[in-house]
Each structure stands twice: as structure tokens, then as C-alpha cells.
Amino acid sequence: MVYVREVDDTTLTLIVSGKLWRNSLIMMDEETGTLWSHVTGEAMGGELAGEYLEDLPVVQTTWSWWKQKFPGTLVLKKDEEIRSSRYERYFKDPDRTGTGMFTVEWLRDRMPAKTKVHGIARGPYALAVTDERLGPGEIVNAEVGPDPVVMVRAGDGGVRAYLAKAGPMRLTFGRGEPASSASGSPGAGVAGSAVRDMQTGSEWDLDRGVCTAGDLEGTELEEIVTLLAFWFAWSNFYPKTEIIE
Q1: What's the fold here for domain 106-175+194-245?
Q2: Looking at per-residue confidence, does 73 or 21 come out higher?
Q3: Structure pTM?
Q4: Contact partners, residue 30, CB within 8 Å, separation at least 6
């Protein structure tokens, strides 16, 4: 997760509090001592309780792709080389579902604990799409509450999500010639063919969320936050989540 650190004209310095909530990290700001959930961005206790940090879309991608797109990027680099992770055993153990002292409650009957999902939360609504479902070039059309969304495995391997609307028009995406597409179904047409919306047949670059040709040329989709998480963690925070496998 990536958050804006400014709240009420104050720039916060966030550190590890040493506390856990639902076996997930709790941050603390040095300015007010307020505790913040790193999953939801919610201020859970302290002077700023009830506030939320503004979240920003983020993507896991390759350095070569990112550097090509954003050559002026600044890089955070530690003084010493990092050779290993203290969480290596944790990631390898499929049955270990928490870092704290207590057993984590999650939707055990739906998927194995460490199934990777890409989650979207909008207000009281949540959606989880399995990482396996989002194969190379895959497009998933879905809804999160009243909002139409599209998720895609982009050319750089990262997953992006957008609000699937051009003005008041709700859009459904697929590949090849325009065709009907059901919610949650894979993109229509031949893999590798042009991405089109089914409503106007316009072509889109969903790596960037921009329409490149057709009636909607120049239209930009609103990118929305998606979180890569283990299933046990996502379902622990969002037990009423919809699922696409």
C-alpha cells in the first residue's frame, strides 16, 4: 500500500508501532502518536482517530519498464546490500497465517490461506481476484458494489485496475472484435489482439488506461487501488468480499 502522508495540512512521519491488529502491522505517526492500519489507512486510536490516509495506486513491475516510462525516478536505496529476508520461512510455510501470538480468523472454506489475491475495496464493498486468474494479458470485467471495474495483467507483468466508465457510459473490455462479455469472464477474442470496449469498439491501452483509437480516443480511465495480499489476510479484513477465481 502507498499513502499520502499529509493529513489536515500536517505531514506525518510514520513508524512501526510494534502493535498488531488482526495480525497485521499498525503504524504510528511521530507527530501525534496516532495509530494507523497499514491495510485500510484508518486512524485507529489517538488524536487523529477516525481520519483516513489517502491511498494511491501502485504496481509491482520491472525496473527496466519503469525506468523507460519514468527516467527521472528517484530510488530509495539502503546503505547496506540486502541479501535475505527475515520472512523467508514465513513465506515458504503454507500453514503459517500470522506474525502475532494469536490464531487468525479467515474464510478457510473458500481458498488456501496463502492464495495470492488482488483486492479492491470501495466503501462497504470488496472484490478479490486470484493471481492465477489474472494470467498474462488477461482482462477481468467485474463490479465492486455499484461500480464497474476492469482489472488487467499488463505487459510488464503488473496488475492494474480501473473504474470502467467513460462519463456516464459503463464499459466492458475484451480482445478482438466487439462482442458481449459477462461479468467476471475472460476477455473475448484471440490473446494478444487489440483491447476494445464492447460498447463502441474503441481500442485501449490498459497498461495506461487510455483509449488510443475510436469514438472514445483520448479518454482516460480512473485508476483505482488494488492490493496484492494473501487470501487469509484479505478475507480477515473483508469477510464479505466477492471472489473471482
Answers
A1: Rieske Iron-sulfur Protein (2.102.10)
A2: 73
A3: 0.79
A4: 12, 13, 14, 15
